[in-house]
What we know:
Layout: E1 2-6, E2 9-18, E3 26-32, E4 43-50, E5 54-61, E6 71-76, E7 82-87, E8 92-93, E9 107-115, E10 119-130
Amino acid sequence: MQFSSESDVAFARLAGTVSTKNNGGFIQFRRKLYVRPDEGVSGVRLLVRGNGEQYFVHLRTRGTVLPWQYYQAEFPTSEEWTEVSLPLSGFKASGAMLRAIPVADEITSVGVVAYGRDHEARVDVSEIGFY
């Protein structure tokens, strides 16, 4: 991951080779939230651009205690900066032991992930927030 800016837009870039060899399959960056979102939050908003591949937002909550537990939602990218809105109701739990939908005020971290298939990843994220 690298931090950069172009035309007064600062962003984080996640880039690399995603390989499913040897039980691999993802690269990510993640931010721990020191202040959790309000109870009334209904989704995650991002300002992104990329190489046309699909990427994911992974949320962890107070209930995702095991390393492989998360909530996941997919988003597309294009070469142009695009605002993406992901409703919490669209996030899928990684296993049966989790609630079906993440609870806003229990979210503890947000990650951007290139996942699950062999490909070259490049996604730039200028903003991540909640709505």
